[in-house]
């Protein structure tokens, strides 16, 4: 029981650090282009990952370097789309839409893993995408091209997570995390050099803090899942929406309207039901269908 309480605390703090990273991304978006933000997110984020590797005694050896690179390519698209969206949209909107990856992975699993999806999960998927439409409100003056960035990011994220499922058969989570950070930083390095914007001292501190928040979130989350189960910890992932709303109001004066709140509730219910059904059916993929933006 003690382990469960510790795991819950670690999980909640991992979500808080993730949302704090999003706050810093949004603040930095007014001073830097998205390429530079993604690069420093991974460059500074790799330091906590190395600490995690030392603690877990994980190895850098891998036989699937090509898969790690492919995963990083999808992660590049996902990070760019999410980070760009944070620069122009409220935190709560982007955070809620990110959970669409659960529904997308469920659909992809049908074609990639030949997974059987019953009528209940199909209803949950449709219900979830209705929630996405409620948040988006297409056809209104509030809808723009940037509004679909989080959904496109969720698609790219879903492919990265599917690849991670394969990689976890060969490498440890810290090893996968290391190669993700390293490859994404290397891929964005030429774009960083070409679009370089000199940070001030205070902006350097924010860039470092952004990377560390992402890396610390990973460490906390990994240890939480070592101590407890997905069934217990998964609901606490949805507190990200609450923190996003809270921090959005505090730092950016963003107050969510009823459509964002209703849409978020619909998305949460649908994605939670998908996880619940797959846990009940004994599906091994359920661990990978939780919100994985900080992996």
Structure characterization notes:
This protein has 295 residues and is mostly helical. It has one domain (2-289). It is 77% helix and 0% strand. The protein has twelve helices and no strands. The chain has helices at residues 2-28, 34-56, 65-88, 91-98, 100-112, 119-136, 149-167, 173-194, 201-227, 230-237, 239-252, 258-280. The two termini are 26 Å apart. 50% of the residues are buried.
Quick structural overview:
This protein is mainly α.
Coarse structural class: mainly alpha
Q: H/E element string?
A: HHHHHHHHHHHH
What would the average pLDDT be, to the nearest integer?
Answer: 88
Which shape, going by the Cα principal axes? globular
Q: State the assembly state of the protein chains.
A: single chain
Helix content percent band: over 70%
Q: Count helical runs.
A: 12
Contiguous uncertain segments of 5+ residues: none
Defining key terms:
295 residues; mainly alpha
Q: Topology of this protein?
A:
Elements: H1 2-28, H2 34-56, H3 65-88, H4 91-98, H5 100-112, H6 119-136, H7 149-167, H8 173-194, H9 201-227, H10 230-237, H11 239-252, H12 258-280
Helix pairs in contact: 1-3, 1-9, 1-10, 1-11, 2-3, 2-8, 2-9, 3-7, 3-8, 4-7, 4-11, 4-12, 5-6, 5-7, 5-12, 6-12
């Amino acid at each position: 029981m003690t382990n469960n309480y510790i795991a819950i605390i670690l999980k909640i703090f991992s979500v808080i650090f993730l949302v704090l990273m999003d706050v810093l991304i949004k603040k930095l978006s007014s001073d830097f282009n998205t390429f530079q933000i993604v690069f420093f997110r991974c460059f500074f984020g790799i330091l906590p990952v190395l600490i995690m590797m030392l603690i877990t005694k994980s190895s850098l050896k891998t036989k699937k370097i090509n898969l790690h690179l492919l995963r990083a390519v999808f992660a590049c698209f996902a990070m760019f789309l999410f980070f760009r969206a944070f620069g122009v949209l409220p935190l709560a909107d982007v955070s809620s839409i990110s959970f669409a990856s659960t529904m997308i992975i469920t659909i992809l699993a049908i074609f990639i893993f030949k997974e059987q999806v019953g009528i209940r999960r199909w209803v949950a998927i449709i219900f979830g995408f209705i929630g996405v439409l409620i948040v988006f409100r297409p056809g209104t003056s509030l809808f723009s091209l940037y509004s679909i960035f989080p959904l496109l990011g969720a698609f790219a994220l879903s492919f990265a997570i599917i690849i991670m499922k394969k990689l976890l058969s060969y490498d440890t989570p810290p090893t996968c995390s290391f190669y993700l950070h390293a490859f994404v930083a290397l891929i964005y390095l030429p774009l960083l050099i070409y679009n370089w914007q000199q940070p001030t001292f205070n902006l350097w501190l924010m860039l470092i803090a952004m990377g560390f928040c992402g890396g610390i979130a990973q460490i906390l989350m990994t240890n939480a899942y070592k101590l407890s189960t997905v069934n217990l910890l998964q609901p606490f992932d949805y507190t990200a929406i609450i923190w996003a709303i809270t921090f959005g109001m505090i730092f950016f004066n963003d107050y969510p309207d009823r459509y964002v709140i209703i849409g978020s509730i619909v998305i949460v219910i649908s994605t939670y039901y998908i996880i619940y059904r797959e846990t009940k059916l004994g599906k091994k993929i359920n661990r990978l269908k939780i919100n994985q933006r900080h992996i």
